[in-house]
User: What shape does this take?
Amino acid sequence: MKPPQPFAILVRSLTAALLACAGLGLAGCASTTAGGAVGAERKQLLLISSQQLNQLAAQSYTKLQAEATKKGTLNTDPALTRRVRAIAARIEPHTAVFRPDAPGWKWEVNVINSKELNAFCMPGGKIAFYSGLIKGLDLSDEEIAVVMGHEISHALREHSREQVSQAIAAQAAIGVGAALLGWGSSSADLANTAYDALIATRFSRADENEADRMGLELTARAGYDPRAGIPLWRKMMNANQGGRAPEFLSTHPAEANRIREIESLLPTVMPLYEAARRRG
Ligand SMILES: [Zn+2]
Assistant: This one.
């Protein structure tokens, strides 16, 4: 697709902004979160606003729900939906450790009835769990909490926003960039583009590592045993070997490394878990 002229000009000015930002540390580079106990303060390139992306994410999420409703797959197991929502409700207040605005987000949590081993949290706190992940891997509440903490952390760090920003800066993914900046076609097309971009997001290993670390801290602060990360990733590893690699794991770090990283983080997060338990 050939970008419309104003977009090309904008990309040039954004690229200039990027260079200035890299050279001088000006606006455009910031950390979306505070560090927490695990230290999540890496500076990020952010060329679009949270509002722009969150609005698109909300539209995409609505579309996902509408499609699931049509197929009869939305929250078909009320006990499972209650369970997943209860875990989210316990984690949400603790997101304040990383960013004070997050507990006030319009969080939504739904369960899609599907064999797929998948879960995600879109920008702005729109969470979906696929029943196949929980039932197929027989996840405990603690293990669900570890997955949820991880997915929520992608949203807190605004990894999608960072990715779109990098794409704009690289003058790639023009369709998404143009859509986000309001050029081009109908709002239906816009929602589709965003849907593809947000659902099909492939995060970098660095992003995955951040989400693991922050997610484990959230898990612990919410009073879920972070040691559950170890059996969780073993289950993931087994699913992988069976050729059933969870979709959302496809670019995730090798599970064996991941287990070692979780073990190395336990001394940092176990005291948070123990404090949460003492508070009841
Ligand atoms: Zn991830």
